Structures are given as structure tokens and as C-alpha cells.
Amino acid sequence: MMNAKQIVTTLSLLSLFSLLSPAASAVEDIDITAAAQNATTRSDHEAVAAYYEESAREIQAKVEEQKQLLEEYESKSYLYGRQTQDLQSHAYALVRKYEKEAKTNIKEAALHRQMAASAEENGYSVPQLEKFSIAHGLHPATVSE
Q1: Torsion on CA atoms 62, 63, 67, 69, rounded to nearest 10
Q2: Are 26 and 19 in contact (CB under 8 A)?
Q3: What is the per-residue burial (b if ≥16 Cβ within 10 Å, else e) of 13-45?
Q4: Going by C-beta distance under 8 Å and a sequence separation of 6 or more, which residues neighbour residue 121?
Q5: Rounded to whole angstroms, how far apart are CA atoms 118 and 3?
Q6: pLDDT in tens, 71-86
Q7: Which of 22, 28, 119, 131 is most buried (most C-beta within 10 Å)?
Q8: Confidence of residue 57 (pLDDT cuts 50, 70, 90)
């Protein structure tokens, strides 16, 4: 049995970890935004596109995980009692959120692939398309549960 001091320490550590987790992804998002803004060559744009494609794959895995949870909540609702509807709503909302995020990342990757191809054809960077991307908010926001 844990005493009060151990419980407080454990809760404090859990709070600290939860606070630090979104911060790490925010820094990563800032780095990719800077990389996208500073991309000028074909290889720069391809690297940014690859990042967005990988991010979309990771988010799609989260979608599948939430869909499985949603199926579990629907098929075995008797196991979750009063919380069933809340759990279903939360899982459904996360599915929608993650699908939207994955779609945004795929669009951004396609845009950078297009910029890479254009840079290759013309032998120079394509700042107009990049500015269009940034101006229209195609860079994804940080995803957190």
C-alpha cells in the first residue's frame, strides 16, 4: 500500500511527463515549419515531403487504433457501464481529428513533391508555391490526445 507521500510524488511525476510531452511535439512542428519555409532545392522539398508522408502514416495508425477501440466500445458496451457513451464519443472525435490531420499532411506532402518537381524542371526554387502553402495554413497543428 502506498503512503500519501508516494502518491503525491507519483502524481507529480505523471503531471510533469504529461506537460512535457506536448512541448516536444510543438518543437518538432516548429522545426518542420522552418524547414518547409527555408526549403529551396529539390532535395529540401523532398525531405519535407517525406516528413509529412511519414507523419501521415503515423497518424493513420492512430486512426486505426481508435477505430478498434470504438468497435470494442460498441460491441461490448456492457463492459463499460455508464462510461460507454463518453468513451465512444471520445474515440469517434479522435478518429475525425486524426483523419483530418492525416489528410492535411498528405496535401502538404503533395505540395512539396510538386515544388520539388518544379525546382528540378526549372533548375531553381519555387518560392511562390511555398508562400502559397504557408499563407493557406497547410502546415498541420500539433496532435495530442
Answers
A1: 20
A2: no
A3: eeeeeeeeeeeeeeeebeebeeebeebeebebb
A4: none
A5: 65
A6: 999 999 999 999 999 9
A7: 119
A8: very high
CA atoms of 78 and 71, how far apart (whole Å): 13
Per the prediction, the chain carries an average pLDDT of 77
CA-wise closest residue to 116 among 9, 21, 41, 38: 41
pTM for the structure as a whole: 0.63
Matching residue, cell 457513451? 85
Q: 84 Cβ partners below 8 Å, 6+ apart?
A: 73, 77
Q: DSSP readout, 41-84?
A: SHHHHHHHHHHHHHHHHHHHHHHHHHHHHHHHHHHTGGGTGGGH
- Average pLDDT estimate for 40-59: 92
Distance CA 127, CA 119 (A): 10
Q: Is residue 104 within 8 Å of 83, Cβ to Cβ?
A: no
